[in-house]
Amino acid sequence: MPNQTKKIKQKGYFFPLDSWDGSDFFYHIDTFGITVTEKVKVLFESLNITNVRFINCTDYIWA
Question: Are 7 and 63 in contact (CB under 8 A)?
Fold first, then answer.
């Protein structure tokens, strides 16, 4: 979409905490996303893994 501005439909990704089983990797059935804990993020960064992008759930933009 060159030269076009995306309209933000919703900001933030929120899910019921009781749907999370406490694991470090959590797959959401209604999205293609995987939520990870800060522990996983720190581990990946310490290993210089670069084929992943971390976005804070509250900063995620649905466009």
Answer: yes
Residue 13 region, left (φ>0) first, then alpha (ψ -120 to 50), else beta?
A: beta
State the Cα–Cα distance between residues 59 and 41, nearest whole angstrom.
16
pLDDT at 63: 63
Task: Identify whether the C-beta of residue 10 lies closer than 8 Å to the C-beta of residue 62.
Answer: yes
Residues 6+ apart with CB under 8 A from 54: 36, 41, 44
CA distance 21 to 25: 10
Give the model confidence (pLDDT) of 16-25 as tens digits.
677 778 899 9
Which pLDDT score, from 0 to 100, does residue 39 have?
96
